[in-house]
Amino acid sequence: QVQLVESGGGLVQPGGSLRLSCAASGIIVSIYHMGWFRQAPGKQRELVAAITSGGNTNYAGSLKGRFTISRDNAKNTVYLQMNSLKPEDTAVYYCNAARWDGPLIEYWGQGTQVTVSS
Q1: What average pLDDT score do residues 7-12 get?
Q2: C-alpha–C-alpha distance, residues 10 and 102, integer Å
Q3: C-alpha–C-alpha distance, residues 63 and 48, integer Å
Q4: How many angstroms separate the CA atoms of 13 and 76, rounded?
């Protein structure tokens, strides 16, 4: 069985920081394209950041360098460091794993809530 388990979400004040974790089982994250997505109420799910199996990263331009995705192969875990948080960052954050060397394969975590409020 494949599981992606997110943790680290919660309530934080504007300007604060959080680090989200995505612990994977059933897959090896170093051979998958890993990503973080978020979805706010009434809005479409959007890509936040991604890291390829080769280590290349991609970010949504609107984040302006505030977020950083990383991978710890020894722990089989992907992280999202979130700094200078704003109320508009409030959303459910989802971990994603994908491969497309053959037929597309995707897995999703259940999500973790991030609320930025004063």
Answers
A1: 98
A2: 37
A3: 8
A4: 30
- CA–CA distance, 51 with 58 (Å, rounded to integer): 7
Buried-exposed string 47-69: b where 16+ CB fall within 10 A, e elsewhere:
ebbbbebeeeeebeeebeeebbb
pLDDT tens for 12-66 read 999 999 999 999 999 999 999 999 999 999 999 999 999 999 999 999 988 879 9
Task: State the Cα–Cα distance between residues 40 and 33, nearest whole angstrom.
Answer: 23
Half-sphere exposure at residue 53, Cβ-oriented, CA atoms within 13 angstroms: 12
Cα Rg, the chain, nearest whole Å: 14
Token pair 């069985």 is found at: 1
Q: What token pair was written down for 105? A: 């394969």
